[in-house]
Amino acid sequence: MEIKVVKDILGANEQIAQKNRQLFDSHHVFVVNVMSSPGAGKTSLILETIKRLKGKTRVGVVEGDISSSLDAEAIGKEGVPVVQINTGGECHLDANMTSSALPSVPLKDIELLLIENVGNLVCPAEFTLGENIRVLISSTPEGDDKPFKYPLMFHQADAVLINKVDLLPYLKFDVDAFSKTIRGINQKVKVFPISCTTGEGIDQWVSWLFDQMKKG
């Protein structure tokens, strides 16, 4: 019975996600689902991405969080439209929450929508939102064992960004072994070592993202 209930929930979510995707496609909006554990750097990455895409494409943001609007306020200062979703305790966004926020998103005025999911390495993998690609941020202080502990997240990702590489001299984190493990789980994934503090790797990430937008 429990398995059937879970399947029903995920099936209903997928139906709404498909409707979201149809809406995005009708407005020619490319959508990125940004996922990570708490504190890995989702908001920092979004801010750095926005800065580098100014004048190149029109960006909007949906901010998902359990509570507060601190991240949305920081993003709003960059002059892009941002909509806050507070889940009220849920550990992930789902397609229905996303759908409820879309009337407040000026889809006709943007070309790229970045959705910051709730910080969690389990639940977000199960719930599609209608996105074109999924991006997973894994920061070096978290350790290089995360692909073993949360394989589904890494299997679902189109790109994995290894954030905070500026801290590598102070940590026991093997980037090569980490990347090899990820590609063992997901052969097609793109891996970008980055630092939102120093800017290392951000241009490469943004260039790749821009290419994905062109491909649609």
Structural features, described:
This protein is α/β, with parallel strands linked by helices and 216 residues long. The chain has a single domain, classed as P-loop containing nucleotide triphosphate hydrolases (Rossmann fold, 3-Layer(aba) Sandwich), CATH 3.40.50. Helices cover 40% and strands 19% of the residues. It has eight helices and seven strands, in the order αβαβαβαββααβαβα. The protein has helices at residues 2-26, 42-53, 70-76, 95-101, 146-149, 151-156, 175-185, 202-215, and strands at 30-36, 59-65, 82-86, 112-116, 133-139, 159-163, 190-193. Strands 3-2-4-1-5-6-7 form a seven-stranded parallel sheet, sandwiched between helices. Helix 3 links the parallel strand 2 (59-65) and strand 3. It is globular and about 45 Å long. The N and C termini lie far apart (40 Å). The model has no long low-confidence stretch (mean pLDDT 94).
| Strand order, sheet with most strands | 3-2-4-1-5-6-7
Quote the average pLDDT.
94
Number of continuous helical runs: 8
Beta percentage is: 15-25%
The SS-based structural class is alpha/beta
Assign the CATH topology. Rossmann fold
CATH superfamily: P-loop containing nucleotide triphosphate hydrolases
Biggest sheet record = 7 strands, parallel
Return the CATH architecture: 3-Layer(aba) Sandwich
Terminal CA distance: 40 Å
CATH domain class name: Alpha Beta
The poorly predicted ranges are: none
Helicity range? 25-40%
What's the shape?
globular
Number of domains: 1
Topology as a string of helices (H) and strands (E): HEHEHEHEEHHEHEH
